[in-house]
Give the backbone structure.
Amino acid sequence: MYTGYKSQIDSAVREVRVPVAASTIQPRTEITKDMITEIGVPSIAVSDGVYTNSNAVLGKYSAVNTLIPAGSMF
């Protein structure tokens, strides 16, 4: 039982690298490499729909009415 419990805890807190906004990104702005940085977060904090690859964000535009705060996941 201990091994199963430990395995579940370890997988929940395993560090995952995710891209985040390096600075505030204004609406209707093309996202470039200098606007992205990566941080390590526990895998449990990464929900569905969060990009885990910086290349998936490059070249995309922020939404018309959306400000992306610094440190936010994409």
